[in-house]
């Protein structure tokens, strides 16, 4: 009798934790939505959802790249600086038209990613150190190129920032498309499988003949390019290039979204759906507190609580 | 292991170098920004006529003369002045401040040494010590923090070097540790912004405040002045929303977007700096509002914000004048000649409204 | 001394122990045996405070105790040497030996000089000579294990639990280990000894407890218990069945074709290998003999491109293979089953399916996208052919038993259709049943025409499994046994024949 009860207790606890790990972030999003529907005036409007989606788009795009880097047991701290570099390049090259400028900005992100990847894959520098170096360097370069905020008056850019298709803003469409693309790559491509294997056990992946270096470089290039895209979109939304403040602390927001979404920092797993939900969760949390006019320090504390909860769930799972 | 890792390292180095070189060549070689006619020249050409004016006459407060401070009379022209800037010149305020000091030094023919602490307080301390070691006879400091200046003040006192602090005060004894403080009265700026808001909204309705960065004295003082004045003059004007925009345009924009959805009836927004105000303008535009639907009052007086008044989106901008050059050198000149100078020199900040925005656009920085 | 009664432990989905009684007496070496998954490791973890039992009681010195952390167990005088060495790889040998009880000098600082001296003495007493200032990870696995043992001895333990201590030791080191165990026994220490090796059990142990499926199936003195009876208790099979199958699953020699498919010439790696040459014909199993650190694993790794060489060439079927690159070696048809299965073999967080498909991915994809249908077919084939016991292809490999993990790795390599298979300790740490299956499989693969290189510290396995044995010592080929000369006796003589260099690292 007792043994049976004990057995079921242990089973339920384990199951519960696994469920919390896998679906906790979705439950969190649902709970916040319900709370807001009930207690926040004017929340259930299309306009509001549009605003939330637009605001979350850049963080989400950066978090996608971050999820890949974290999946290889790495991290990319340079994403915020890449956004700043992208906005500087965009502003510098806008004379050629928005497409060329956006392309140059993304190429800038790719180059930073290439440098990150080369440092990690060939020189063997730890990702946190390598990307920290590029974080400082890219921000510095961005400020050399464009020392202060500059308005962007290009009509194409402002259309990108505030235009929509059938009521869905371009920003949201782009973010959704990128999320689907990254999810597809992780699930279905050989690159995705190899990335996970490398993140889980680098020596095993090497001995299994996987192109470890190539995969690592591609991961950081993707992360850099995605951050640059986020930088371009944020610039379009702001209709100004502001390399001094654009992307500051973005790396932390992105890491938070990824971790809250259930991707372990120890690598070997990438959850794109969870990452999207993680970014949305943080956005909703901030919004809820802002809409109820609670002090900003509350937002930070609430974020801390969410992160601790996510890490706790991850730890419990890691123990088995 | 060795040969491959060496090869790998060489490859990585080549890769990095090529990347950097091609990158820089590309960037500098064929950049073509949106409007090639740079606005910076225009700004510096026009800024001469907008130096600061003292608000409080020097007789009203305690003064300081060289006998009380210690040291000898000198001629400013033959002296070396050291200027320590706190933050990197990446925002209009700091750019205008440093430019103004440099320009005034050039005008007076004074040798000027400059240093920038890049927002690191420890660097500012060593910057100032460097300036003293390099032979600065007089110091102008834009402090990053108010506290922690003891080591520098001791060194300066030993050499009887007069110090003038600009835009922020330090916690020390005036006329003993330093000569004078020249700066704006942030509380007064808040009060004047409140006056402007009351006038624009008619004194009733609900308004919001976009706070500056938390834990910053500028934020607390601009908030205090504004709220005290509202309580005193327009109790019907209710502040229903207080959120930080961290002095940045993007944050100001996203906070305002949430604000206008959850409180559609908002009548006015008080932004504690221009950047957040401009972010609020972006948010209003995005929400399909018309200029003037929501009254915006901001503080600082940057060119973009004043242009916002001209365009009809912003109702008033309270100036916080960064051009400390003329007043700082005037103070140092008088002091070194042996005259008494005021310990607290509060400057007169002007304001921009729809009446003068267009004509005074050139004065904005 | 240390006993448990009626202990049960349940993990989600698994009943690891049910109603187990076990007693370790002072001055006695008690063997704990059973197949993998029988509950040995769990029982040890309950004894040493890693897992609290869900039911039952642990008694120490006659008093009921409840260890909630390994530290508490250690303080009570219970030391454990785990299967995987659990020390701090980056710290020096001396620091590891004194971890948590460093000799303090004045001011409470660590007295490094005294620590090194005492560490050196402690290791010397066990017949190990290493530079105690070196980081632990630079030592071989065997030497690391001896450090772990030295640590257990040094803390004046009253109960010492050893989980497969000999799995990475050389015969000479095993001898030293047994000396130490006898020393401990004579001092009145209770020793709990877990091993898969029958010879060792009969040599050193006084009593035995057999676990099967989380239950005690036999406990009593070891003397008088027939070997085959013991094996049948562990497997839960009849004696006749076991006897009929013999002790290893190898069948005689193979008919080898004339031309070697693998040719390695003059492989040299500074400090590790000197001009090692060997060749393997299709259908032939070549054993690599020698002591720990003689360069067996290094040879296999050099051939597979996992260890960059300073000189030497490798060719497969006459075509040279670019060195220092595992992908190049794999493309040429060389596959390596690495020694350290957990760290270098399996990808624990990925499923059985992903692990099997890992190396063959480029061949199983089109335009960079994986072809799931083909993967499913291949995985299905191998799971059935190798009899991999799994809850399903989507179970994580980390959750499988050692033997099944090894089978998954074999499947991974067979999926790329190699010409040469390098097996480094293929049966280490896996249970008797799986061991037999893996041995039979090696035989079968050689029959199919694969060239196999076999490395094993189990001499019996090496001799019975190999058609030819190349003997290494200090990174050089010193002898080659062929035909009838492939005997345990000849191997030992070949190893012993060369004047000892005196270095064992």
From TrEMBL, chain A:
For this protein, the record's Pfam families field holds:
BPD_transp_2
The protein's predominant localisation is membrane
Residues annotated as transmembrane? 23-40, 52-70, 129-147, 167-186, 215-234, 296-314
Instruction: Return one GO MF term.
Output: transmembrane transporter activity
Please give, as recorded in its UniProt entry, the membrane topology of this protein.
Multi-pass membrane protein
Q: Which GO terms describe its cellular component?
A: plasma membrane
Query: What keywords are assigned to this protein?
Result: Cell membrane, Membrane, Transmembrane, Transmembrane helix
Span of the secretion signal?
A: none
Q: Where in the cell is it found?
A: Cell membrane
Superkingdom per UniProt: Bacteria
InterPro entries per the UniProt record, alphabetical:
ABC_transp_permease
What protein am I looking at?
ATPase
**Which taxonomic lineage is given here?**
Bacteria, Bacillati, Actinomycetota, Actinomycetes, Kitasatosporales
From TrEMBL, chain B:
Keyword Signal present in the record's keywords: the answer is: yes
For this UniProt entry, the molecular function terms from Gene Ontology, in alphabetical order, are: carbohydrate binding
Keyword annotations of the record: Signal
Subcellular location(s) of the protein: Cell envelope
- Signal sequence, renumbered to the chain: 1-33
| Top-rank taxon, per record | Bacteria
Residue ranges occupied by any Periplasmic binding protein domain in the UniProt entry: 90-333
Cellular component terms, GO, for this chain's entry?
Answer: cell envelope
Q: Where is this region: Disordered?
A: 37-61
What SUPFAM superfamilies does the database record attribute to this sequence?
Answer: Periplasmic binding protein-like I (SSF53822)
The family assignment reads:
Belongs to the bacterial solute-binding protein 2 family.
**Name of the protein in question:** LacI family transcriptional regulator
Species this chain originates from: Streptomyces shenzhenensis
TrEMBL record, chain C:
Q: How does it sit in the membrane?
A: Peripheral membrane protein
**One Pfam annotation, family name?**
ABC_tran
- Its chief place of residence is membrane
The UniProt record lists the ABC transporter domain at: 2-238, 242-499
Swiss-Prot/TrEMBL keywords: ATP-binding, Cell membrane, Membrane, Nucleotide-binding, Repeat, Translocase, Transport
Picking any one GO molecular function of the record gives: ATP hydrolysis activity
Q: Where does the UniProt annotation locate this protein?
A: Cell membrane
Gene Ontology cellular-component terms for this entry are: plasma membrane
InterPro entries, from UniProt? AAA+_ATPase (IPR003593), ABC_carbohydrate_import_ATPase (IPR050107), ABC_transporter-like_ATP-bd (IPR003439), ABC_transporter-like_CS (IPR017871), P-loop_NTPase (IPR027417)
Checking SUPFAM superfamilies in the record gives: P-loop containing nucleoside triphosphate hydrolases
Report TM segments.
none
Question: What is the protein named?
Answer: Sugar ABC transporter ATP-binding protein
């Amino acid at each position: 009798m007792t043994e049976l009860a004990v057995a079921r207790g242990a089973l339920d606890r384990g199951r519960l934790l696994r469920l919390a790990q896998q679906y906790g972030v979705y439950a969190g999003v649902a709970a916040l939505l319900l709370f807001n529907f009930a207690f926040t005036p004017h929340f259930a409007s299309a306009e509001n959802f549009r605003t939330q989606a637009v605001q979350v788009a850049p963080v989400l795009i950066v978090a996608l790249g971050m999820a890949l880097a974290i999946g290889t047991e790495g991290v990319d701290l340079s994403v915020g600086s890449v956004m700043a570099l992208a906005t500087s390049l965009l502003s510098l090259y806008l004379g050629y038209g928005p497409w060329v400028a956006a392309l140059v900005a993304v190429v800038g992100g790719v180059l930073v990613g290439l440098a990150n990847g080369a440092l990690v894959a060939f020189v063997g520098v730890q990702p946190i150190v390598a990307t920290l170096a590029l974080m400082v360097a890219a921000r510095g370069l961005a400020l050399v190129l464009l020392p202060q905020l500059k308005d962007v008056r290009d009509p194409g850019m402002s259309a990108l920032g505030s235009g929509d298709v059938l009521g869905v803003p371009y920003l949201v469409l782009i973010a959704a498309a990128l999320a689907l693309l990254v999810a597809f790559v992780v699930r279905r491509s050989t690159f995705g499988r190899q990335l996970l294997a490398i993140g889980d056990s680098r020596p095993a992946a090497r001995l299994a003949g996987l192109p470890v270096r190539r995969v690592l470089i591609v991961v950081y290039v993707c992360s850099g390019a995605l951050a640059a895209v986020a930088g371009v979109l944020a610039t379009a939304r702001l209709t100004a290039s502001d390399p001094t403040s654009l992307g500051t602390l973005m790396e932390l927001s992105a890491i938070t979204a990824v971790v809250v979404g259930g991707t372990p920092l120890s690598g070997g797993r990438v959850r794109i759906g969870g990452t999207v939900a993680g970014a949305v969760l943080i956005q909703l949390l901030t919004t809820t507190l802002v809409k109820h006019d609670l002090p900003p320090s509350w937002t930070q504390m609430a974020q801390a609580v969410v992160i601790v909860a996510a890490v706790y769930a991850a730890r419990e799972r890691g123990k088995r | 292991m060795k040969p491959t890792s060496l090869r790998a390292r060489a490859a990585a180095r080549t890769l990095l170098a090529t990347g950097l070189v091609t990158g820089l060549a590309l960037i500098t070689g064929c950049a073509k920004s949106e409007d090639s006619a740079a606005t910076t020249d225009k700004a510096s050409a026009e800024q001469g006529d907008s130096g600061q004016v003292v608000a409080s006459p020097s007789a009203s407060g305690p003064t300081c003369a060289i006998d009380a401070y210690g040291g000898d009379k000198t001629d400013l022209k033959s002296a070396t002045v050291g200027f320590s800037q706190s933050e990197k010149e990446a925002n209009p305020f700091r750019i205008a401040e440093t430019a103004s000091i440099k320009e005034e030094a050039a005008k007076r023919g004074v040798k000027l040494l400059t240093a920038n602490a890049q927002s690191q307080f420890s660097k500012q301390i060593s910057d100032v010590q460097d300036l003293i070691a390099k032979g600065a006879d007089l110091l102008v400091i834009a402090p990053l923090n108010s506290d922690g200046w003891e080591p520098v003040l001791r060194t300066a006192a030993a050499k009887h070097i007069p110090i003038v602090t600009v835009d922020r005060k330090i916690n020390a004894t005036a006329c003993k540790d330093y000569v004078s403080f020249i700066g704006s009265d942030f509380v007064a700026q808040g009060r004047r912004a409140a006056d402007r808001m009351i006038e624009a909204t008619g004194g009733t309705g609900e308004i919001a405040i976009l706070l500056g960065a938390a834990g910053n004295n500028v934020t607390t003082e601009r908030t205090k002045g504004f709220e005290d004045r509202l309580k005193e003059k327009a109790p019907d004007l209710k502040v229903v929303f207080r959120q930080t925009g961290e002095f940045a345009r993007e944050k100001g924009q996203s906070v305002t977007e949430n604000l206008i959805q959850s409180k559609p009836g908002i009548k006015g927004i008080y932004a504690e700096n221009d950047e957040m105000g401009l972010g609020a303008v972006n948010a209003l535009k995005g929400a399909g509002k018309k200029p003037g639907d929501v009254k915006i009052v901001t503080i600082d007086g940057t060119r973009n914000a004043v242009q916002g008044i001209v365009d009809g989106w912003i109702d008033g901008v309270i100036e916080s004048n960064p051009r400390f050059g003329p007043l700082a050198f005037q103070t140092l000149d008088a002091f070194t000649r042996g005259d008494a100078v005021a310990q607290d020199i509060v400057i007169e900040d002007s304001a921009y409204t729809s009446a003068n925005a267009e004509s005074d656009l050139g004065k904005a920085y | 001394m240390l006993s448990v009664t009626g202990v049960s432990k349940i993990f989600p989905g698994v009943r690891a122990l049910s109603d187990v009684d076990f007693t370790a007496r002072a001055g006695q070496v008690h063997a704990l045996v059973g197949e993998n998954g029988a509950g040995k490791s769990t029982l040890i973890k309950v004894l040493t405070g890693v897992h609290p039992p869900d039911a039952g009681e642990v008694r120490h010195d006659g008093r009921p105790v409840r260890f909630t952390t390994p530290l508490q167990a250690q303080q009570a005088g219970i030391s454990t040497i785990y299967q995987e060495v659990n020390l701090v790889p980056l710290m020096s040998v001396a620091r590891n030996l004194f971890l948590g009880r460093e000799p303090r000098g004045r001011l409470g600082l660590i007295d490094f000089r005294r620590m090194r001296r005492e560490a050196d003495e402690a290791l010397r007493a066990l017949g190990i000579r290493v530079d105690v200032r070196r980081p632990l990870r630079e030592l071989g696995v065997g030497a690391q294990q001896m450090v772990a043992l030295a640590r257990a001895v040094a803390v004046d333990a009253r109960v010492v639990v050893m989980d497969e201590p000999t799995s990475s030791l050389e015969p000479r080191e095993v001898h030293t280990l047994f000396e130490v165990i006898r020393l401990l026994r004579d001092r009145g220490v209770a020793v709990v000894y877990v091993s898969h090796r029958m010879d060792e059990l009969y040599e050193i142990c006084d009593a035995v407890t057999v676990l099967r499926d989380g239950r005690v199936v036999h406990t009593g003195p070891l003397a008088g218990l027939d070997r085959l009876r013991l094996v049948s208790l562990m497997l839960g099979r009849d004696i006749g069945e076991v006897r009929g199958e013999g002790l290893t699953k190898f069948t005689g020699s193979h008919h080898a074709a004339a031309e070697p498919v693998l040719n390695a010439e003059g492989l040299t790696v500074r400090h590790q290998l000197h001009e090692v040459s060997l060749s393997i014909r299709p259908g032939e199993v070549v054993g690599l003999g020698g002591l720990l650190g003689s360069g067996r694993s290094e040879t296999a790794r050099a051939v597979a491109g996992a260890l960059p060489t300073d000189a030497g060439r490798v060719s497969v079927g006459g075509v040279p293979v670019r060195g220092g690159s595992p992908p190049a070696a794999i493309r040429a048809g060389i596959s390596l089953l690495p020694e350290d299965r957990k760290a270098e073999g399996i990808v624990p967080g990925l499923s059985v399916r992903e692990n099997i498909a890992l190396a063959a991915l480029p061949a199983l994809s089109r335009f960079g996208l994986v072809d799931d249908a083909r993967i499913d077919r291949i995985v299905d084939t191998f799971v059935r052919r190798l009899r991999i016991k799994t809850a399903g292809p989507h179970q994580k490999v980390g959750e499988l038993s050692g033997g099944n993990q090894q089978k998954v790795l074999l499947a991974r390599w067979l999926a790329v259709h190699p010409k040469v298979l390098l097996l480094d300790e293929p049966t280490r740490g896996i249970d008797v049943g799986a061991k037999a299956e893996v041995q039979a499989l090696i035989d079968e693969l050689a029959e199919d025409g694969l060239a196999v290189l076999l490395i094993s510290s189990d001499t019996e396995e090496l001799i019975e499994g190999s058609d030819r044995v190349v003997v290494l010592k200090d990174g050089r080929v010193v002898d080659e046994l062929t035909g009838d000369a492939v005997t345990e006796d000849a191997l030992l003589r070949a190893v012993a024949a060369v004047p000892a260099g005196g270095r064992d690292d």
